[in-house]
Amino acid sequence: MGEPLLTSLPAAAGPAVVTVAPAWAVAVVAVLGALALAAAALDGVLSARSASAGGAVGAAGRPLGEASRLLRQRRRTTVQADTLLWRTGGAGLLVAAALMLAVVPLGRWTVADLAVGVVWFNAMDVMVWALVWLVGWGANSAHALVGGYRFLAHGLGYELPLMFALVAPAIAAGSLNVGAVAAAQDGLWFAAWMPVAFLVYLLGVAGFSVWGPFAPALGTDVAGGVRAELSGVDRLVLETGRYALLAAGAAFAVPMFLGGGAGPLLPDWAWTLVKTLAVLALLVWARRRLPALRPDLFMEIGWLVLLPAALVQDLLVAVVTVWRS
Amino acid sequence: MTLEAALLLSAAIFSVGLYGAISQQVVVMVMMGLELMINGVILAAAACWWFLAPDPTGQVLLMVVIAAMTLEMAMGFAVAVLLHRARQTDMTDMATDLSR
Amino acid sequence: MEVLTVLVDIAFVALGVVAVLSGGAVFVVDSMARATYALAVSFVAVGVQVLFLQQSYVGVVVILMMVMEMAVMAVYMVMFMGMNPALMPMSMVHSNRTAVATAVLTFLLLAAGILVVDWPARRGSPPRDVTEALGEALMGPQMLVMAVISPVMVATIVAGVVLAAPRTRYDRFGDDLRQRPPDDPQPGGVGR
């Protein structure tokens, strides 16, 4: 009758990964913060260069200046705002990003070696649907709500292709454990032989970070959209959350598509960081290079182009996997 | 942890959902009541699996429950949209003639 | 180890209480968005409880699906009821007394059954990899379940679209179905 919970099963750990003590979750948050800051600094440099203003050092420090400005700014309040939901949405983005990063192994170590880490990541990126919409809703402001709806419309377009893109590495590795997926690409990275899934995945990361082509939810044509009524520390939390999501998405790409910590000379944790930074830099750079995707038009692209492409990719991967075994 | 405690929690969730499904006038709120009932069923099924018979095939029942929930939601939304378009209403009370 | 077991038990019961209370909040709060996301909290709590019960795949899928569904549900709520986020007192219930009585009676009946029944001891032991076991079951001995659910799902998608879509192909392609390009209120992204 009284079976103990949780404790009686051996952890279904991937062979290549060591689970560290839960206290290391602090390190996860620190790494996430550092990555988000790096992304923001790079974005500052790229902005300054496209505006051809200021030196690179000053531009890299601009996010910090912006942060301190926002910290001193007064928080805006709106009439009859649903403050509980509004604040939950903003702060939740950071939490979701940290929970995503918790399942990503840094070289050999991981904080949470879930047997279903891939699905866990997926569940966390679905959380973002709710959170961004709540930020738009809570302010009791028309423009913010329009932004929230734009994000949900984008979500309907990118989420299913993203899910099926994540399926491809899981099929090839025969496991939903992130460490096992990383260990399975011995020699040949998944990004090399499942490029469609990799590209769709990167597009999905931009999607759930409300980044680049998916920024219409924050568009200037709707007075800033979701963040129209955000100021001061609330705006800082939202922006940090977006960079953190971008960083977590980039970090998750490493074990899924880029061979985890594999690489010459450097130790595996260093390779994980280097690859993460490379993907992150690519995403930050792409922000200015890609056109905005209108939510109404992207819906059809997502369902008629990206989804079938991801499914065909899954089929090919499944056939190859069966053939190899 | 005992099976009884888990089942009592699931029965409480189920009963709250039942209250909502009976008492609410708005179609979407009725759906939320139904979903809460299914939520209780999920907990009960998971608890029975773990405490009574954690064999490999037992989880299939849970997959069926989850599938039933998606069907409920898809058809519920479709009917709610249809009702809204046909009668500009979202209240069950204004669709009582459907039961005749 | 003993202490850990007790802590896990407390966490499990606390999650259950959260699930019940937020489930109750769905029918009490004064805002559509709050009601919807209270239900989402209830589902997340149960999902985590299912994780505690070792069925990690099912637990995570419950969280994933339900948060997504509630995000969509909130849109429907606002669309049909057109409320602003202001916390307007609202009461949209009928036969409240019957409903309360039915719910309480049901709970008492279920509780009595739960406490009276002499539950058997556990049979068998959990598989080493629960998720793998689920996959093996679905693609092996329990294949029929999958084979039945799949067509039902497809039928649901078709039926849902048929019920909900206001326009038919005659609206798009004209009476003789020859009009190209189709007449859509909103152009698609791939230029059909």
From TrEMBL, chain A:
Task: Give compartment(s).
Answer: Cell membrane; Membrane
Q: How does it sit in the membrane?
A: Multi-pass membrane protein
Q: Which UniProt keywords apply?
A: Membrane, NAD, Transmembrane, Transmembrane helix, Ubiquinone
Q: Which GO terms describe its molecular function?
A: NADH dehydrogenase activity
Q: What is its main location?
A: membrane
Annotated GO CC locations:
plasma membrane
The portions of this protein that span the membrane are 20-42, 84-106, 126-148, 160-184, 190-211, 243-263, 269-286, 298-323
GO process annotations (BP): aerobic respiration
The record's listing under Pfam families reads: NADHdh
Which domain of life does the UniProt lineage start with? Bacteria
UniProt key word Transmembrane: yes
Family designation: Belongs to the complex I subunit 1 family.
The record's PANTHER family line, in alphabetical order, gives: NADH DEHYDROGENASE SUBUNIT 1, NADH-UBIQUINONE OXIDOREDUCTASE CHAIN 1
Q: Can you say what this protein is called? A: NADH-ubiquinone oxidoreductase chain H
UniProtKB/TrEMBL annotation, chain B:
The UniProt keyword set, sorted, is: Cell membrane, Membrane, NAD, Quinone, Translocase, Transmembrane, Transmembrane helix, Transport, Ubiquinone
**Role of this protein:** NDH-1 shuttles electrons from NADH, via FMN and iron-sulfur (Fe-S) centers, to quinones in the respiratory chain. The immediate electron acceptor for the enzyme in this species is believed to be a menaquinone. Couples the redox reaction to proton translocation (for every two electrons transferred, four hydrogen ions are translocated across the cytoplasmic membrane), and thus conserves the redox energy in a proton gradient.
Question: Which gene does this sequence derive from?
Answer: nuoK
Q: Where in the cell is it found?
A: Cell membrane; Membrane
Provide the topology term for how it sits in the membrane.
Answer: Multi-pass membrane protein
Q: Which Pfam families match?
A: Oxidored_q2 (PF00420)
Q: Which InterPro entries match?
A: NADH_UbQ_OxRdtase_chain4L/K, NUOK/Mnh_C1-like
Record's protein name: NADH-quinone oxidoreductase subunit K
In the record, the note on similarity to other proteins reads: Belongs to the complex I subunit 4L family.
Source organism: Serinicoccus hydrothermalis
UniProtKB/TrEMBL annotation, chain C:
Q: Where are the transmembrane segments?
A: 6-28, 35-52, 58-78, 99-121, 141-165
Q: What topology does the record note for this protein and the membrane?
A: Multi-pass membrane protein
According to UniProt, the name of this protein is NADH-quinone oxidoreductase subunit J
Q: Where in the cell is it found?
A: Cell membrane
What does the sequence similarity comment in the record state about its family?
Belongs to the complex I subunit 6 family.
Major localization listed first in the record, in broad terms: membrane
From which source organism is this entry?
A: Serinicoccus hydrothermalis
Domain of life (superkingdom):
Bacteria
Q: Record's Gene3D superfamilies?
A: NADH-ubiquinone/plastoquinone oxidoreductase chain 6, subunit NuoJ
> Locations of Basic and acidic residues compositional bias?
173-183
User: Sorted alphabetically, which keywords does the UniProt record give?
Assistant: Cell membrane, Membrane, NAD, Oxidoreductase, Quinone, Transmembrane, Transmembrane helix
Report the protein's function. NDH-1 shuttles electrons from NADH, via FMN and iron-sulfur (Fe-S) centers, to quinones in the respiratory chain. Couples the redox reaction to proton translocation (for every two electrons transferred, four hydrogen ions are translocated across the cytoplasmic membrane), and thus conserves the redox energy in a proton gradient.
Under catalytic activity, the entry for this protein gives: a quinone + NADH + 5 H(+)(in) = a quinol + NAD(+) + 4 H(+)(out)
Q: Write down the Pfam families for this protein, in alphabetical order.
A: Oxidored_q3
Q: What is a GO molecular function of this protein?
A: quinone binding
